[in-house]
């Protein structure tokens, strides 16, 4: 695993990445609180601790690139530029939610930002991202599809089908495995034939073996730049394994007691946000600049929460809309 | 001048018509390009449209259907072939959980103009895993349109309509009909989804049929005529959208309705149609509606066994005559 501290990432990009990670963290913290207050309905899968992966890629992507992510996808959807208020409103099941309350926490899409969906069935979105990359290639749009998924996905068939087709068709796509060491409750290592669930599979598809420190934002930004450029230049797909850790359980139902306390403690020490703050501080970003970013994020997420809370419930009539392109649901004449 | 072509030729003709018209229409699937399809439904398309637009895939049904979905999200109108409809089971997550639900879940942000074509049905002795009639699987999932043509002209007209439709369509081509011939007129052919056809008028009873059961019902109807029974035959053509107006009108006109279904009995499309007729035209009925289906069994391979399993013209005739006693 690469432990190198980058010197390449420019200071402007770094502050931007720091802001993104804070936005994602603050969004998840508030989502958690709102869940405990009974305002976020259903379930939610928080990405607390995994922000560096999302921020590194989001900072490196072009506006019309396409993101495909999983049910643990608040952060990816947010960092592509989805309005935070509309995103939080979706978690609350409100009318102004990105999907009008029809999606919920696990199904977040905001097409204007290139957030092409968070997918709640493990593995499904890999072939879908392949299709989007295929269309980008055929249309010559210059877009790259970036597909984020968890370690557990590497043992499902769709992972292998998608990788194979992406390589055979030399598509502009980057597969990013967020290896947080646990599928849901079970450690990935205990049920996987290889030690590194994604990177060790790369050779099977003729791809470069790339495993990186998913908690290091500079490393993530660099690998994002490299893999996106390769895809955009016709160099085909990449498979990146970013090793990271979720601070909480799999979902709201999971207290994560299966994880050894010392392991959790060790990873909390590697929390990307304070780590990155120190790095920025040591490399010349002033305390004032950092505080300014932090205050801006705090107030923007609070505003988003207020906006979401103020949004009304969806009209009941919308239950029966948008099954078909004519806007309705009728299946007979 | 009208032209006589086979059902399988109609598939290629429909695809060529639409691919010529719209350069965003692409065809992918196993053996669809160089081999022209294992059922020879796509010969010549590779030569006409080139290897980018007519493309062979690995045996990867999830990748095929997923790629079609992703491409539809990003500006193409893909047609994906799943070689046998039975193989839909291997990619049903993509079909039923993703493709069918994405427009709704995104509140209309994502449109999926795509077609999944698949060879469906029995009559060719392939046994239980390559012979099923699976329209009901698709019919039961909100968000999928379901088309199953019975003749070459409908193949072209409904394929064109399906490709032009802004919603995902599962297009069932019946492998028992591939060699059947039918007349098609000259020029561009485009039909409407959701319109049934009264293919034989009859004043005594109404047979509601789909795909291969349409010619079988017509054969039965001709023979019933000799018994003094005039049977009307309705070709449903689409299950979603469903032309309930035509179904109800025909049911009310004769008051005696039979569904002729190739699928195994439970939860067949006929059950849904019976419930609609009973709810909405009950007082026009003169007798209980009767469903003629394959029994609730997997399909066997051997000729006499498969023939015994499927609704035959004789079984249709016997069922109708018995119920009229």
Provide key terms for this protein.
heterodimer; A: 333 residues; alpha/beta; Rossmann fold; 6 strands; 42% helix; globular; disordered N terminus; B: 325 residues; 12 helices; 14 strands
Structure description:
The complex is a heterodimer of chains A (333) and B (325). Chain A has a single domain, classed as Rossmann fold (3-Layer(aba) Sandwich). In chain A, 42% of the residues lie in helices and 10% in strands. Chain A has eleven helices and six strands. In chain A, helix 5 packs parallel to helix 6 (157-168). The longest helix of chain A is centred in the first third of the chain and has 26 residues, at 11-36. The radius of gyration of chain A is 19 Å and the shape is globular. Chain B contains twelve helices and 14 strands. Chain B has helices spanning 7-21, 45-53, 61-73, 92-99, 102-105, 135-139, 152-164, 213-226, 244-254, 269-281, 303-309, 313-324, and strands spanning 3-6, 25-29, 54-56, 77-84, 115-120, 145-147, 169-174, 181-184, 197-200, 205-209, 231-235, 238-240, 257-264, 290-294. In chain B, the strands form three sheets. In chain B, strands 3-2-4-5-7-6-12 form a seven-stranded mixed sheet, with helices on both faces. In chain B, helix 8 (213-226) links the parallel strand 10 (205-209) and strand 11 (231-235). In chain B, helix 3 runs parallel beside helix 4 and helix 8 (213-226) crosses helix 12. The longest helix of chain B has 15 residues, at 7-21. At the A-B interface, strand 2, helix 5 and helix 6 of A face helix 3, helix 4 and helix 5 of B.
């Amino acid at each position: 695993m690469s432990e190198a501290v980058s010197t390449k990432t420019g200071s402007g990009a770094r502050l931007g990445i720091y802001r993104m990670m804070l936005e994602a963290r603050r969004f998840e913290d508030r989502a958690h609180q709102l869940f405990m207050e009974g305002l976020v309905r259903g379930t939610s899968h928080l990405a607390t601790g995994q922000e560096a992966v999302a921020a590194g890629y989001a900072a490196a992507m072009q506006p019309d690139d396409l993101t495909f992510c999983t049910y643990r996808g608040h952060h990816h959807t947010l960092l592509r530029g989805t309005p935070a208020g509309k995103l939080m409103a979706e978690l609350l099941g409100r009318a102004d939610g990105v999907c009008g309350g029809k999606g919920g926490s696990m199904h977040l899409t905001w097409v204007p930002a290139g957030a092409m969906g968070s997918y709640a069935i493990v593995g499904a979105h890999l072939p879908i991202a392949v299709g989007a990359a295929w269309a980008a290639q055929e249309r010559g749009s210059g877009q790259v599809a970036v597909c984020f998924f968890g370690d557990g996905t590497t043992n499902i068939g769709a992972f292998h089908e998608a990788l194979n087709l992406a390589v055979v068709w030399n598509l502009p796509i980057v597969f990013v495995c967020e290896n947080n060491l646990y599928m849901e409750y079970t450690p990935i290592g205990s049920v996987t034939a290889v030690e590194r669930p994604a990177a060790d599979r790369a050779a099977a598809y003729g791809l470069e073996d790339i495993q990186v420190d998913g908690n290091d934002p500079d490393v993530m930004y660099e690998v994002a730049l490299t893999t996106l450029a390769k895809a955009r230049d016709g160099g085909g797909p990449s498979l990146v394994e970013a090793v990271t850790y979720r601070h909480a359980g799999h979902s709201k139902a999971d207290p994560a007691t299966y994880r050894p306390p010392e392991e959790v403690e060790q990873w909390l020490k590697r929390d990307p946000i304070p780590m990155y703050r120190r790095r920025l501080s040591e490399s010349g970003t002033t305390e004032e600049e950092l505080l300014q970013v932090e205050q801006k994020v705090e107030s923007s997420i609070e505003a988003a929460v207020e906006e979401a809370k103020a949004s009304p419930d969806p009209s009941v009539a919308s239950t029966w809309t948008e099954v078909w392109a004519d806007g309705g649901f009728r299946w007979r004449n | 001048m009208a032209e006589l072509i086979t059902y399988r030729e109609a598939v290629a003709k429909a695809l060529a018509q639409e691919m010529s018209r719209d350069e965003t229409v692409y065809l992918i699937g196993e053996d669809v390009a160089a081999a022209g399809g294992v059922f020879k439904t796509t010969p010549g398309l590779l030569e006409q449209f080139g290897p980018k637009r007519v493309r062979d895939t690995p045996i990867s049904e999830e990748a095929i259907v997923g790629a079609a979905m992703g491409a539809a999200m990003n500006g193409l109108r893909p047609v994906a072939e799943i070689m046998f409809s039975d193989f839909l089971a291997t990619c049903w997550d993509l079909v039923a959980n993703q493709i069918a639900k994405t427009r709704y879940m995104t509140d209309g942000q994502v449109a999926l103009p795509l077609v999944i074509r698949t060879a469906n049905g029995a009559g060719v002795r392939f046994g239980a895993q390559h012979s099923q009639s699976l329209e009901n699987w698709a019919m039961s999932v909100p968000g999928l349109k379901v088309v199953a043509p019975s003749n070459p002209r409908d193949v072209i007209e409904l394929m064109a309509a399906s490709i032009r439709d802004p919603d995902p369509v599962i297009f069932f081509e019946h492998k028992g009909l591939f060699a059947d011939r039918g007349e098609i007129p000259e020029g561009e052919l485009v039909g409407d989804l959701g319109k049934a056809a009264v293919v034989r008028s009859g004043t005594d009873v109404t047979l509601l049929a789909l795909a291969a059961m349409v010619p079988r019902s017509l054969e039965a109807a001709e023979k019933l005529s000799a018994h003094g029974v005039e049977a009307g035959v309705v070709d449903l053509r689409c299950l979603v959208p469903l032309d309930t107006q035509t179904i109800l009108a025909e049911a009310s006109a004769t008051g005696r309705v039979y569904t002729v279904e190739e699928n195994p009995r439970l939860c067949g499309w006929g059950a849904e149609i019976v419930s609609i007729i009973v709810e909405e035209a009950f007082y026009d009925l003169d007798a209980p509606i009767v469903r003629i289906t394959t029994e609730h069994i997997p399909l066997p391979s051997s000729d006499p066994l498969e023939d015994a399993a499927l609704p035959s013209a004789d079984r249709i005739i016997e069922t109708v005559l018995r119920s009229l006693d």
